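Working notes for the structural subgroup meeting. M.R. asked for a predicted model of this chain before we commit to crystallization trials. I am recording the input and output together here so anyone reviewing the notebook later can reproduce the run.

Input as submitted:
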Amino acid sequence: MKASFLSENINKKLSFVNHAVSNRSQLPVLLNFLLTTQKGKIFISATDLEIGIETNIPANIEEEGGITVPARVFFELISNIPKGKITLHTKGENLILESDKSKTVFQTMPREDFPKIYEDKGERIATIKKNILEKDFTKIVFAASQDSGRPALSGVLIKKEKEGKKSGFLLVATDGYRLSLKKEVDAQVQDKGEETTLLIPSRLIKELISLKEEDDIEIYASGKNNQVLFVQRETVLVGRLIEAEFPNYEKIIPADFSTRATVDKRELQSAVKTSAIFARETTNIVKFSLERNLPAGKAGKIIVTASAPSVGESTIEVEAKVDGEENEIAFNARYLLEFLGNIDEEQIVFEMSGPLNPGVFKIAGDPTYLHIIMPIRVQN
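Returned structure, recorded in token form:
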């Protein structure tokens, strides 16, 4: 193996590939990058057996081949090499890296020891624009469970939607305490006639959102290997589909409400942040008290409160347009802050039908999105 390329080209790609390198593994080769050279490109791959990433950069290839190299050291070294030409070549069991004023020798492991990230792409499901993916998937993925012991709740459900000429996705994620749903996500869906439902690990979605390039992303699914692949230009992100039954999310969505409030997102977020300072000292509970608009024209409000016996209490009024019954409800402050932190829109709508029923948050003017948080029972 012998190849030369520009350090600035590999620097752009290596930091993302590094996300798939295993931190601790019983297989030492998973601590390595796989480097292969062919057809005018050098391919860089990494996997921790949960996700895999492969990308490539243009290179002058003098001899095709492949080798694995310790990822952490290789990444740190490349990050500190000034802009310019880099040459890589193997000599026996070593990989030699040379730049303008330096030479480094790496211990390696054979490419044959490195597991295949994927065998084939499978069937193309859809193409989606990066800005759409970033905007819509961000509103969903945070609601997935971080508990690997509950696999069905640790993923994002993607369901193909097609009505007439319009096509797209429905996205759902839940950890059992909250749920995010987005309909009509704009995508060019392949119309094969059959229903397509994928349960994708939330970690994979988060990595997908972090892609730096703005090019369209193609989505492939391989039933044979139970994998999903996201392809953006030279980069392929691979993960295994979750084989578990997703809960019946439609049963969780309330059919009606008795109180509805429209409120400025930033003002509510600021009030919850302040109240959370006190809430974290006890059970992390923040309470909403909704007071409706008065006949005299005075605006309604949401009173956000939290208390800690050993510290004190916080009471903040947030102006809101409140319709229906006056009501009270309590939530986990962390759930509120994570929801509000993942929404960019200025106005949100809050609906509820009692202190023991789920609270529903929507984006004003957008009927395609909702977020549900289960309440916490509190004693007055």
